[in-house]
Amino acid sequence: MSAVALAAHSLAFAQTTTTPDNAATLSEVRVLGTAEDEARQALGTSIITAEDIARSPVSNDLSEIIRTMPGVNLTGAGSSGAYGNQRQIDLRGMGPENTMILIDGKPVMSREAAQMRRTGERDTRGDTNWVPAEQIERIEVIRGPAAARYGSGAAGGVVNIITKKPQKQLSGSVTVYYQQPEDSQEGGSNRLGFNLSGPIGKDLSFRLYGNIAKTEGDDIGINGLDANGLPLAAGREGNRNRDLNALLRWDLTPDQVLEFEAGFSRQGNIYVGEVPQSTNATNTALIKELAENGAELRRTYRQTASVTHRANLGELGKSRVIFQYENTRNSNCKKNAAGGPEGSCTGPLEFVESEQQNYFLSGELNTPLQLGGLNQMLTSGLEVRHQSLDDPNAIQQNGPSGPITASSQSQAKSLALYLEDNIEISPSFILTPGLRFDHHQDFGNNWSPSLNASYELSSDWTVKGGIARVFKTPNLYQSNANYWYTTMGNGCPTGVTGPCYIQGNPNLDAEISVNKELGVAWNNHQGWEASLTYFRNDYRNKIVADMDAGAVVDQGTYRYFQWNNAGKAVVEGLEGNLNIPLLGSSGSTLKLINNFTWMDKNHSKDTGQPLSVIPKFTINSTLDWHVNQAWSAQFKATVYGRQKPRTQMANGTPVSSVEEIGTHTIFGLGVNYDVSKNLRVGAGINNLLDKQFLRKGKQGSSAGAYTYNQPGRAYYLTATASF
């Protein structure tokens, strides 16, 4: 429903006015949707429903279905191919570090506990795998200017994962999922999940869910072996997941709700032979042993506790207050001096644990108003964040010659205030100005103004647009002057054998992006829908650590450089969708659903290097067939355009491969059958035509765009029993 429709179907709100004789009268104010509601209607917003997930089940990670939305891709963060198969959500080409992940409106920051390499990679899958797929009510993917309200880290956009709430009657379900690849060298997946919810008293209700999942790692030789029997490039790591979450809801009054929530998750990798750039006989044997045994060399533990209060405050409107504590512990095998991959772990294995703690407090009030004869919904909010990190890995390496100060601890505190006003200029014109103020203890003040608008030209046509200034503060690795990262020659300037040292830089500036979008949407209310959106992000102060001659400080026996703010960059492209009803009322029986993304520009203005390695274009199509009330089927196709890689630079000259991945198409087929109202089964084939390609190059070496494995054909079965 559009914001205009929300206004038309709004509740009446009584605003008291005073007449000259002091008699109280009431005037009616139509209650608009909030600015957050309006953001959900923006052309840069996509909604994935629980039904979408049920009909296109994921093998493990929600990123598998999120990536099918317009403007969304999976990508690594760097150019070296390090951790290439560890890809994360990338919105509009701004990179994973500029994508904010939320669960029920609460920020998820566990991936920031993973150490950042100089090229921007983190050994992490990201934060889209903490909630089981069957526990999702919907996923909101918000791109463009509407994301400005969320603050630092949302320059690309926001993924808000909304979970299912407690039910009024006792209910529950159990889901099993099994996937088997056709290629015996690829890892399969299986998972088991449950949820239970219902009342436990007059005003109390609960929700409990759990999940056990395992994705096998690829065979050590899937990408080929060298003369020593080591992988030419490692395949996809496996993963073991455990999740448990409990929520207690207390309806204090008809107008007040209090929720207590606690969760625990564990993710352990299954090692497949990620090889450091140089090896010797000792760690060669160790790499083989660890990979053949499927050892876990990295474990991540995430614990959360939160309290949420929601209230209807009458004339003041509706309020929401959230407090969350998030603790992330990363237990990693001790790395060598270069801070390399698992293959560089020394034997016998030693583990080092880092710990990140995040405190988040948020308060928001949505107040209906009538000012100047205009119906409005004013949103005012406050956020407080405190992030601390203790990572002993940061000081495991030997320091450069001469005395240095090293510390494993760092922290950041920030305060934000924001205002947004959803204004009904006319029944067809909604204007939403906004302003967010952030104060960071190290990087000062930042203002983020925004302006979004929606205008209904007719009942079928709507024009929408917006502009906003968005920012991102440096992370705790980049900004800590006591954090040193060591490279044993890889990436050093030409003629320098190493070691080279990378030092954190407390004098960095925040990254800034000015995001703009303008689009048109058409809906004939008979199943036909289409939209086209132009977007452009002008990006400056991107934090990089390219080892170029001019950036390295020569100390004689060693050389070092710092993360620094680069010049300007631009991201520009088109997004759109076209839904075509084929059979049934508004396509209720058979419908063709399409979306596309075209990236016209995605590069640094100074170097010409792309900001992230993503397809030139992406087209997602689904033929959705509801055979009858029990049977449904989906035939899916995704076309990926060519992918042009970044190159590592030394003295201004590219020193790595520029091999591109060409245009290719991945097909899929899924069938679902409702055996009864309490039992649903599904089956399907992923990558129907077995389009497969493999990663090239060892960690840190030339791989071009081939930094990940595209898995081949795989078959899946799933079933959900409920009561």
UniProtKB/TrEMBL annotation:
The keyword Signal applies. One of its GO terms (cellular component) is cell outer membrane. A motif (TonB C-terminal box) lies at residues 706-723. The keyword Repressor does not apply. Keywords: Cell outer membrane, Ion transport, Iron, Iron transport, Membrane, Receptor, Signal, TonB box, Transmembrane, Transmembrane beta strand, Transport. Gene3D superfamilies: TonB-dependent receptor, beta-barrel domain (2.40.170.20), TonB-dependent receptor, plug domain (2.170.130.10). Pfam families: Plug, TonB_dep_Rec_b-barrel. Residues 238-688 form the TonB-dependent receptor-like beta-barrel domain. One of its GO terms (molecular function) is signaling receptor activity. It is a multi-pass membrane protein. One of its GO terms (biological process) is siderophore transmembrane transport. It is found in: Cell outer membrane. Residues 44-158 form the TonB-dependent receptor plug domain. NCBIfam families: PRK13524.1, PRK13528.1, TonB-siderophor. Belongs to the TonB-dependent receptor family. This is Outer membrane receptor FepA. It comes from Comamonas aquatica DA1877.
